[in-house]
Amino acid sequence: DCIKANAKSCGECIQAGPNCGWCKKTDFLQEGEPTSARCDDLAALKSKGCPVEDIENPRGSKQVLEDREVTNRKIGAAEKLKPEAITQIQPQKLVLKLRVGEPQTFSLKFKRAEDYPIDLYYLMDLSYSMKDDLENVKSLGTALMLEMEKITSDFRIGFGSFVEKTVMPYISTTPAKLRNPCTGDQNCTSPFSYKNVLSLTSEGNKFNELVGKQHISGNLDSPEGGFDAIMQVAVCGEQIGWRNVTRLLVFSTDAGFHFAGDGKLGGIVLPNDGKCHLENNVYTMSHYYDYPSIAHLVQKLSENNIQTIFAVTEEFQAVYKELKNLIPKSAVGTLSSNSSNVIQLIIDAYNSLSSEVILENSKLPKGVIISYKSFCKNGVNDTQEDGRKCSNISIGDEVKFEISVTANECPKKGQNETIKIKPLGFTEEVEINLQFICECQCQSEGEPNSPACHEGNGTFECGACRCNEGRIGRLCECSTDEVNSEDMDAYCRRENSTEICSNNGECICGQCVCKKRENTNEVYSGKYCECDNFNCDRSNGLICGGNGICKCRVCECFPNFTGSACDCSLDTFPCMASNGQICNGRGTCECGTCNCTDPKFQGPTCEMCQTCLGVCAEHKDCVQCRAFDKGEKKETCSQECMHFNMTRVESRDKLPQPGQPDPLSHCKEKDVDDCWFYFTYSVNSNGEANVHVVETPECPSGPDIIPIVAGVVAGIVLIGLALLLIWKLLMIIHDRREFAKFEKEKMNAKWDTVSQEAFICIKATVV
Q1: Hey, what CATH class is 573-609 in?
Q2: What are 438-452's pLDDT values in tens digits?
Q3: Domain boundaries 538-569, CATH class
Q4: CA-to-CA distance for 421 and 107, rounded, in angstroms?
Q5: CA distances from 575 to 64, 373, 605, 609 (A)
Q6: The CATH number of the domain covering residues in 118-355
Q7: pLDDT tens per residue across span 64-96
């Protein structure tokens, strides 16, 4: 990202990303590299040889300017604080220095203060259908005062009423109906749009007195003009008497509402201007401005920190619940048919609204984003949109938010900006001054019209020239009129070549500026852009085998590597044989591989020999003749077997064990008498062979005749007994079968005799 930004100055570089730095070292660039090559990833700049102290890399920061602790106090405390002296949000003011792409994070603490002042304005629909409700509201002041004393010791209440716009078709404009819009003998007051009956006061009796003098009015259509009234209550703060405390607006009606566009029915087309138009506490422009839109109301209610409670009858619950979803920090309560439950409704709605805190921020400058993370009660954490709020907060509970502010671009003029964050429905806010880091420190230290920039044709800053208008080149040495001159192109050709900048760059002001490739790791360089770092020999698919650096199409290998592609390792460890010798002493180690010089030996370390005897078999006869004076070489022992030093030991335990410096072979061989003898063979660093042999062979003892004969005789006897037992068993089985056969034949003969006698008796009886 840093290279692709093609930054011409340090300021442009640091705006390319949070990890981009600018090298201000004067001689940092290689020949042919553009000024933008000074901008790169921090690690890349260090690897290219830019000292840390020469890298411009300003970082963002935060500074808290105002940090009053949140207020801790109890209801009924002797100390009475002014509303502006109570703190529920911390900190109150801070400065964030933002660098593009680098978030700055701070913590915000919110704590619901106990005994916090409340202003409540009761806005009531006085159309004819609310006649019975008015009777119950007349005593609301003192009753509500008593209930609210349980929550706060500083409570004020006000009252306003509304009916409808005073034009057709909303009301009848006949003179008689304007005097009394009700039918029959009902005495009703003239219709009006909105009237501020009582500004906010702490005198409950005064509320009862003034509300008691109110009379019902009337209109023609079912929806009422309540939105006009809400707008005036929100924007006419001075007339209503709002303080910077908790502001509650109770909107009481038994009907629906008109909104923006409905004014056309009465010929009113001008959009609501969202301004205060109260004269003598009466809204005078209802016939001139349309009803406000829902979005317009949301904006004004939010700007003025007003929380709305809709006290509506059961019939219109569904409509106002949908409206509640569009208006933050609002609640809906079910009003009984005569408003007898209004006090409990207000208390419940207030508890519901005050148990949730929702953060909102003012409009953000272009390119600035903000994110929230909440840390609520009982370990509940959330992010994104849900990170703005915490629910189920009781009085005295403390919650925290983690807020991150990120700038994705610098303002065009680089000026500071201010944003504000506040909890919805509260007047307190956090003011954040945003200061954007769009330039480097070294730019303020620049030298205008510097001699280093070709006779003062530019400002020398951050190690490079920033050319004056009409000048170009790394040192501002050319004017824009000279750029396409053929004479300049001649300086960009190599000898005997027609290619400008080797076809790898542009000739600017008689100097080659090498072009960039899609892969930002691949770079052209050189006076004529004739060099690059990606056209070197490869090994295993890697440039320079991954064991070197490609410079101007030639590999510069790392230590212990050589070759055109750095694919030849000088490390001899892979060639080390098991006996500790390189290639087993039978070859040479070339590029980490053994080249066996003895044709009989092969394998990775020249240790495999298909036609060779092993060490033990090779030296068996010599060890036998020297240690025991026997064997095939007994007669020639002194001539053929004196090439090693021999040491006798008492037992196998005394033989040298593995782990000594010299390669060692343990041997077990048979001599001419079929006895086993044990020895070791090793070669020390001086090439001397050493043999250690156990002085006493292990010969097998002869067989013991008596046990063998006794065993054979016992075996014959046992086999004979077994055969006799088998024969006896077979005879018993045979005899039993014969006896059973005899018994069966005997029974058959007896049956024949009885049958014959019975036949003679039957015959005699018949005769």
Answers
A1: mainly beta
A2: 888 888 888 888 888
A3: mainly beta
A4: 12
A5: 66, 60, 5, 16
A6: 3.40.50.410
A7: 999 988 887 665 554 666 777 788 898 999 999
